[in-house]
Amino acid sequence: MARAITTQKKVMWTTLAWCFGLLMFFPILWTFLTSFKTEATAIADPPVWFLFDWTTQNYADVQDRSNYPKALMNSIIIAVGSTFLGILIAVPAAWAMAFVPGKRTKDVLLWMLSTKMLPAVGVLYPIVLLAKWLGVMDSRILLVVVLMLINLPIIVWMLYTYFREIPGEILEAARMDGAGLRSEILYVLTPMAVPGIASTILLNIILAWNEAFWTILLTTVDAAPLTKFIASFSAPEGLFYAKLSAASMLAIAPILIMGWFSQKQLVRGLTFGAVK
Amino acid sequence: MATAHSKSAARLMIAPAVFVLLVWMLIPLCMTLYFSFADYRPMRGVFETWIGFENFIRFLTSSSFLSSLVTTLQMVGGILVITIAGGVLMALLLDQPMFGQGIVRILVIAPFFVMPTVSALVWKNMFFNVDNGLFSYLFQGLGFPPYDFLSQSPLLSIIVIVAWQWLPFATLILLTAVQSLDSEQLEAAEMDGAPALARFRFIILPHLSRAITVVILIQTIFLLSIFAEIFVTTNGAFGTRTLTYLVYQRVLESQNIGLGSAGGIVAVILANVIAIFLMRIVGKNLDN
Amino acid sequence: MGQINLNQVTKSFGDVQVIPPLDLQINEGEFVVFVGPSGCGKSTLLRLIAGLEDTTSGHINIDGKDATTLPPSKRGLAMVFQSYALYPHMSVRKNIAFPMRMAGLDEATQKAKIEAAAKALNLTDYLDRKPGQLSGGQRQRVAIGRAIVREPAAFLFDEPLSNLDAALRVGMRLEIMELHKKLETTMIYVTHDQVEAMTMADKIVVLQAGVIEQVGSPLELYHAPRNKFVAGFIGSPRMNLIEGPEAQKHGAATIGIRPEHLGVSKTAGLWQGKVGVAEHLGSDTFIHVHQTGLADMMTVRITGDIEARHGDTIYLTPDMDQLHRFDAAGLRIE
Fold first, then answer.
1. Residue of B187, B186, B66, B173 lying closest to B112 (CA atoms)
2. Of A79, C25, C194, C317, which cross-links C263 as Cys (Cβ 3.0–4.6 Å)?
3. Is C246 found in the same domain as C226?
4. Mean of the pLDDT values across residues B15-20?
5. Taking CB atoms and an 8 Å cutoff, what residues of chain C touch B3?
């Protein structure tokens, strides 16, 4: 844009945008503030904004609740585990579809996408039944597998769109230079694909972390991740705003940070390349 | 560049992904299909393998199905209207020259990364609560009587919660689309004498139409299976029982597997109708 | 080393045969150029030789050994791609070292060869840069360097200059020719630009629709094009092709006369026409002549500058020794 932008206009847009931005962010901000209040201040009338005695007691209390560290551990294992398992299966598939496209590649990709659109309730009971039958109900391994499966189409798609951006001529050059399939993947493809794979991992950890259908319905105690842990606060004993806020902040903070890093990939990953 | 050698290697590499997804999709879906034709109520020890279409007839003619369908449509429609309209405006706003654009962007996007159970609980307790919620203070301050959102207008409350989560998604995608608009097009329109509103109507909106379609379709797919937000706030009471939630209740709460499975199949069919449209757009995009 | 034979080679993509049975012999040390309009199959032919595409039938022999089913890495050839295809994550040094690393050469030999290649290609100062930091010409040289260190039986070039600007293109053309003189290795070079073909080649292979129209030295092709297609394709500006009664006078279905073989006069001559556009290059003048009654437009090339205004009447006289005659099938009549 080669046009001079008046400061006045810029200030106007800035003000407007910041108002909207803060409005959107307010619930998170309010949760953040509340998490540092005492329970009494948290429900004070009128509400207290910044001028209160900041306390980290709530965070300590939440940590002490016997099941919080376990839920956190479960969340980490399930999110990271399902993502890496998915990557392991998806990288070869996406590589093959991007670089050795066949007549049916498009159909396979679209079919994979269609499995993502299958409503979870349509298969809820069979999954519960199978899990009980295999004796894996309320286990981490069950959630790792299930979340891997529901996110696998997204992983394949994201990797596919990244791989397709690597020019085929470079891989051909490697072949001409005497590289076999193994060297081609190891020395040429992988280094070029690492940024794409990293973004895919990031986005999928976020999606798996926040998944709140299977994680709630397939767990009771042992494998319950943070989604389930937080849901337990809806019971009457959970009506402690400050503690609820502290637990919430602990549950969302890591993902919020990861999410900010992956804004760009979010668009690509969730629109299946339809919007770039 | 495809040679016979690489082709067979490729098939081998795709196989695991196809296999696990095929198993994941086919086995449970076939089981659901099987149960949907059975009278299966494990709590009462009833299991009759074939009762024909009785479950489907019972499910489709029940008043709870019709009301759940209406609820689903209202919920999804309401959220779509808010997120699309808000998303377009927000995207245009974020595209303007300003100070601290990056930070504003982060603020706007943040809600998308909040765990559904967290956002539901935060809104439920800290905003909608009739005694201690922020909205109650706001209403008091403005001189209105206190209002119990979740029991007096529960559907709207859930729409607000979910719209807050998905508005960032719409904004982000539409912003990407807005930024891909060639600024020379807008300058040409300006030279042709089009005022700002006409430029929006005739240049920007058509440019965004594809992105808007994508947002609508993808959100619909995700919104049809909203669960945690209802589970945590109303547990399906007060007319917030969507189709997804109804099936969940039939299957896991009242343990009427046959009836629930029939409902599950209905949900699958409805989702597929929307999925077909989305796949067409995505498929077209693959070709170029 | 560097003799390549193609024996009844064909290539089909699905049901479409892009290369019908084709024979070609490329001798040791030759500079062979594949030239033809886009879509003529010249790149496909190169990729068949490289092994990047499977042949549908037929055999490819490299130095007497059947290489038809060998993977590209085992054929001992090196290729320079149109997009250069440099590895973006590796420095120039690592890019050049890559083929040697794949061949398992020891570090010292690698280092020596890299230094030598870099010196020959003026890349010594850029060895530690990434390809993204180089200009188009430098990237091109890195691609060539990567090919040289492989000491291949033959170099394959796939339109290597088409991404460069005009001035650089001429310079690189000379560098590649000098490289060929120095290495005396077989080179196969694909281009759609007939000027590149004429200036660089020992042997030109003109292709159209997967079929070899003519194989020969540049001057053979210029002086004795085997058919109308080659006649029209080789030479710039294009040969004037005339059909009808004028051709029949010479016992041919079509006669061809190159623009440089037409004499011009303002007063008298064999053919008469009106000046359309005159292009003044200083050294030459191209005059496009209309309303001759022979062809839609005739092009004349005159050495030096000549005044010609739009609409002027002009007379053309062909040099009869340089007249090409073609029969109804488009083949040359001797």
1. B173
2. C317
3. no
4. 90
5. 51-54, 71
